[in-house]
Specification:
The structure is a homodimer. Chain A is mainly alpha-helical. The first copy, chain A, has a domain of about 90 residues: Arc Repressor Mutant, subunit A, CATH 1.10.10.10. In chain A, strands 1-2 form a two-stranded antiparallel sheet. In chain A, strand 1 and strand 2 form a beta hairpin. The longest helix of chain A has 21 residues. Chain A is elongated. At the A-B interface, helix 1, helix 2, helix 5 and helix 6 of A face helix 1, helix 2, helix 5 and helix 6 of B. Chain A binds a DNA duplex through helix 3.
Amino acid sequence: MSRSTSFAVAIHLLVVLSHANRKFVSSETLAAGVQTNPVVVRRVLARLRNAGLVDSQPGVLGGSRLAVKAIDISLLDAYRAVRTGSLFSLHTPAPDCPIGGRIPEVLGENLALAEEAMEEFLEEVSIEELAGEILPGYSDDLRH
Amino acid sequence: MSRSTSFAVAIHLLVVLSHANRKFVSSETLAAGVQTNPVVVRRVLARLRNAGLVDSQPGVLGGSRLAVKAIDISLLDAYRAVRTGSLFSLHTPAPDCPIGGRIPEVLGENLALAEEAMEEFLEEVSIEELAGEILPGYSDDLRH
DNA sequence: TAAATCGTAACCACTGTAGTTGCAATTAAA
DNA sequence: TTTAATTGCAACTACAGTGGTTACGATTTA
């Protein structure tokens, strides 16, 4: 349903950065792991930067790094940073239909609650935790 | 994110049908309320039919009706009937990268759990309940 | 000054969605 | 038996979102 992989890419980037010990990692290095184009990576990084999760620096030895400790970044933080709309899309029914007229309100409410249930789960998982599941103990220097 | 409105349309159709007392409602009538094309409605109805939630009949006086009581249809039933993939999409990272190699497994697991949390919410809301919120007491004959 | 990197705009290709038309099959009514 | 209303489904189009790519000015270090 969600055709976009930005969320998965965002998580991937954050996990990699969490292993880089605040050293700047270039978008090219990151793109190699994500297996995509550096510009695509920078687009996702831009979102994460706007959300205050990473910071970046241009120039030789430039790149991006975590702006917040991995244990303080939840999957929900990443989700909110990159999401473009709500999980479910409503249609626009006939407003003069007795049912259609109230569908957006009632259904919208219920779907928002469903989305909230999902977000509450995401909130409980941190990048640190995820990184631990992925690579226990790994902390190489990925810089250049 | 989810560009498709099929789920919302499906709910709308089920709520309308729940007010029709097992009488057949034509896709044209349904399309008027949903404010779309009858073929679009029939496409969603086809999914609901495959899931055993409605049945249809061609010919004059034909149409669709609930195959199951509204109280026995959950939003999750409708969701599963029309969904085309999982809620989140994964990317395909470099398998030789120590992190990328395990991202699909670990992240996939976590996102599946997040999706489950949402589904558990949907499971608790029935079409009957939703119809009650939308139009308490309404049960006109919508047939032709 | 040169090289590496970022941020961002611009463009292209692919894909999924909704809308639309068309038609054979089915069913009820005249 | 014929006519009309309806379904199911295939095929086509238009539109929008996504990812990939190129390009270029700005920034920073060596």
